[in-house]
Amino acid sequence: MNKSRVAAIDVGNDSIKAIFGELEYELNIPNIIARDTEDRPVIGIEELDSKNPLDGIHIKVHSPALKDNNAIYRVGNLATKTDNATELDPGSSKSEEDQTLIMLFATLALDAVKLDSFPKAKNVIDATYTLGTGLPLREVKEGKDAGYRSRLIGNVHQVEFLVTPKYQGLKVNLKFNEVKVYPEGFAAYINLVMDNNLKIINKDLIDKRILIQDIGGLSTDIAVIKNRNVDDDKAQGFNLGVSESLEAIREEIRKKHGVELDSRRDVVEIITRKNDRNHIMVKGSRTSVHDITDRILLDLAKKQYRLLRNVWQKNSQTEICYFVGGGSHVLKDYIKTLNNNLDGYNIEFFEDDKESIWMMANAYYKLIMDFVRKSEKPKEPVKTN
């Protein structure tokens, strides 16, 4: 019997965050792909073995779930070095994009090739996973989670490593024992109040009326929580994320300073790093881009604040709003300033950047592990008289 391995994967717009097994392995890969050809040139085959596989992910993906089957891709860091790299577009649905699945399969395959526990014949590894993942609230409300799950389960998805350090020539056949797709807002709540064993760690929050504003790359979810449940009717998803603003910053920096940034992730790095924040190097000189970032991000923060205000007005007995997700990390200072100057809502951000960015992956891990534990429990025998 091919034993199933647990995987919790947050396909974020900026990057993929994945947790495997008994918390023994994590992966974080930029969510960028670029179509490619089979014969990617490599300088010296010896050099290939010494490189980090994560810097040279070059794969062919075969899956009945893909619209564009059997295509070849550069993924993550390698894709940023091309002219045809694609990131998820604003307005697109995460559940319907090939890119979401390509990133998901690549991440799982990178885990599978590290293990000895999966059956392997010649260069082919047969890997089975129990997957916990999620979609924006808006897509779950539209019922897209069921279609997304059915595309994954019941099919075999193959990832073939082409010119990838250490893994060249290996193929991974991916199957899913079970796939659980959680709404992102609900997942954030679970992460706030429970530990890895789903024991309550935050008693203060359990019976409070809470909003959770999860700002992602392409969308924003506001979960409304009362009586320990997410109120599905009141919860709202919006087509407003940070991607367009990051793209606008990248474009203005290119026009004004002639500096080409590889991806939105580079923009995030400039905005959020501890030292030299909002500065870039132009022809070897340290140059401020504060004027560009402040104007564009303040404009987005105002829109996000408007969403908060509208939802809070409809849920007037709310006690606190938690801001989570990578977008909150980018907009934190701007939203705090607006709130201090305007309504003064009781809002909270996570000062630990990693905690905010990994929140969804951690939540999916807690939820999928709980599912696994419950399904492994021996059933009570039926008593007969």
Q: How many angstroms separate the termini? A: 36 Å
Name given to the CATH homologous superfamily of the domain at 4-184: ATPase, nucleotide binding domain
Tell me the quaternary state: single chain
The stretches of 5 or more residues where confidence is low (pLDDT under 50) are none
> Which structural category fits the helices and strands?
alpha+beta
What is the number of beta strands? Answer: 18
Shape assignment = globular
Number of helices: 12
Helix content: 25-40%
| Beta-strand content | 25-35%
Please give the radius of gyration in angstroms.
22 Å
Domain Alp7A-like C-terminal: 210-349
InterPro entries: Alp7A-like_C (IPR054368), ALP_N (IPR040607), ATPase_NBD (IPR043129)
Pfam families: Alp7A_like_C, ALP_N
Domain Actin-like protein N-terminal: 8-186
